[in-house]
Design goal:
With 450 residues, the protein is α/β, with parallel strands linked by helices. The protein has 3 domains: 185 residues, 3-Layer(aba) Sandwich (Rossmann fold), CATH 3.40.50; 115 residues, Rossmann fold (3-Layer(aba) Sandwich); 108 residues, GMP Synthetase, Chain A, domain 3 (2-Layer Sandwich). Helices cover 28% and strands 23% of the residues. The radius of gyration is 22 Å and the shape is globular. Bound molecules: zinc ion (ZN). The site of zinc ion has 7 residues, from loops. It comes from Desulfosarcina widdelii.
């Protein structure tokens, strides 16, 4: 068996945490570096941000061990929404980009994030090294993400790829799968970077198989990535699909899979990632699923300290087949608030579980869900987006059968507490074209379902 190449992030992290040039990277070297970088970040934040000055009051001036990380209070999305400028640690003239994230929450207040040119360079550098697993010099990449604005994800990716002598071509999010396929054929790209349902819509399109043999690798990003989508794209194009985990708050990039494709290796020179119990906030040992919390270690514009992402995942206990000492974050199980309680007896599942079942059905390229609760009864309505208007009754039957594989749904139906209604999406057949995370809409008629 040929040995898998080690993730390019390993050497990159080793060089960044230096100065032990030529010496193999070790966990203790990473821990030592992260503790120093964390203390630098705490100093920077206390000195330059009114929010952190108050937020971090009472902490010792210098943290002596990463074991004491839990003494630092969390930062939340709400802190950013309330007064984003209070978290900014650089003067306004040094801010190169402001990103506004619309929220689907009830407050309606958007989140604003601030980055300096040096912060953006960190992202370009990560994209440069992270993409080295997928592309070789001379290859071409079609980027199916926003990229027109300087500093946008597509723009930073083009810049990172150019350092690998790889040409990045920005197409933008896919609103017309046939046009995106044509563009990929015309540009003779070897690799695609896109949003899971949008790339699935391209692969599943009747012209999609034309890209088989041309596309070698695909990177799926932005949203939580269902394995069922990965499997379908790989089958149609006979390519390798890699996953990237990141969010704007992380500086867009967080972690990327190596050739083993068994989880995300993290940019540990820039981010300190922890898993905590979402209810108690206490740190969890590796192997346990909890909420992903991260601290930026090198960010100057708006450092985030123990920021709660709401995403649920676990660190893998086994070492990666590529042989890296970097940690591997396992599958993102979806957001904590994307967990659905089916009954008062607490039968529940993640939207991610539903995704795995529904996207495994051939011909489904997207869906939207809605939960209506009335008294003790719940109705789960799934609006399915099919690739083409054919064999729809069969598809609906397949989706029903697939969701019934989830025991929480099956038992709630057996109790007569749940009805599952499967419909086809109204209007023109279209996948979600935005970059927002999937949500299930909740409607509660009367608040008696608890
Ligand atoms: Zn690996």
């Amino acid at each position: 068996m040929t040995k898998l190449p080690i993730t390019p992030l390993e050497n990159w992290v080793r060089r960044k945490i230096g100065p032990d040039r030529g010496i193999a990277l070790t966990r203790s070297a990473i821990d030592r570096y992260q503790l120093q970088a964390l203390n630098r970040t705490l100093d920077h934040a206390r000195q330059n941000s009114p929010f952190y000055r108050e937020h971090l009051v009472g902490l010792p001036q210098t943290l002596t061990s990463l074991d004491r990380l839990a003494e630092i209070p969390f930062t939340t999305a709400e802190d950013i929404r309330r007064d984003p400028l209070a978290l900014v640690c650089a003067s306004q003239d040094r801010i190169a980009r402001v990103v506004t994230l619309e929220t689907s929450g009830t407050t309606g207040t958007p989140k604003r994030l601030f980055f300096t040119a040096a912060d953006q360079e960190l992202t370009v550098d990560f994209f440069h090294h992270g993409m080295a697993t997928l592309v070789q010099p001379g290859q071409r990449v079609l980027i199916l993400m926003p990229g027109q604005t300087p500093g946008s994800v597509g723009d930073l990716l083009v810049r990172g790829l150019s350092r690998l002598q790889v040409e990045g071509i920005v197409q933008g999010p896919v609103d017309d799968p046939a046009a995106a396929i044509d563009h990929a054929l015309k540009e003779k790209v070897d690799c695609l970077v896109g949003i899971p349902v949008q790339v699935l819509a391209m692969a599943s399109h009747r012209q999609g198989p034309a890209l088989a043999g041309q596309i070698c690798n695909v990177l799926l990003s932005t949203d939580y990535v269902p394995d069922a989508i990965v499997a379908r794209i790989e089958r149609i194009w006979n390519c390798r699909v890699f996953k990237h985990y990141g969010m704007t708050e992380m500086g867009l990039g967080g972690g990327v899979e190596c050739s083993a494709r068994k989880g995300y290796h993290l940019r540990e020179a820039d981010l300190l990632v922890e898993i905590v119990d979402p209810a108690t906030g206490l740190p969890l040992a590796d192997g346990n699923t909890g909420e992903v919390v991260f601290t930026t270690l090198t960010r100057e514009g708006m450092p985030l300290i123990r920021y709660r992402t709401g995403d649920m995942a676990a660190f893998r206990l086994d070492s990666c087949a590529c042989g890296t000492v970097l940690k591997t974050l396992g599958r993102i199980r979806g957001r904590q608030n994307a967990m659905l309680e089916m009954t008062r007896r607490g039968r529940r599942f993640f939207i991610g579980d539903l995704d795995e079942k529904i996207f495994a059905v051939d011909g489904v390229i997207d869906y939207r869900g809605r939960i209506d609760r009335q008294d003790h009864h719940t109705r789960l309505t799934l609006h399915i987006v099919p690739v083409e208007l054919q064999s729809l009754d069969t598809m609906k039957a397949c989706v029903r059968e697939a969701v019934l594989c989830l025991s929480a749904i099956r038992s709630a139906m057996a109790d007569g507490r749940l009805t599952v209604d499967i419909q086809l999406a109204d209007g023109p057949v279209a996948v979600s074209t935005g970059t927002a995370k999937r949500r299930i809409e909740h409607r509660r008629e009367r608040n008696t379902c608890r």
